[in-house]
């Protein structure tokens, strides 16, 4: 399972702009602090935790909405 989540994280990194706003913002913050190849493992962990929560609660996935600051 771990390998599959890491492979999924690699794929998600390639399509970072197409992710939901919450995951994209989290991923942008993570990659600003570390190398993108190093960020794959925390992303895989994040994806695994999201999958676990969806399976444990039996509810559909609802991505978080991140408010964006508007420059004045």
What do you see in this structure?
The protein has 72 residues and is mainly alpha-helical. The chain has one domain. Helix content is 61%, strand content 0%. The protein has 3 helices and no strands. Helix 1 (2-14) crosses helix 3 (40-57). The radius of gyration is 13 Å and the shape is globular.
Q: Indicate the proportion of strand residues.
A: under 5%
Helix content: 55-70%
Average pLDDT, all residues? 82
Largest sheet features: none
CA-based gyration radius: 13 Å
pLDDT < 50 runs, ≥5 residues: none
Total DSSP helices: 3
H and E order: HHH
Defining traits:
72 residues; mainly alpha; 0% strand; globular
In short:
The protein has 72 residues and is mainly alpha-helical. It is built from 3 helices and no strands.
What is the topological layout?
Layout: H1 2-14, H2 21-33, H3 40-57
Helix pairs in contact: 1-3
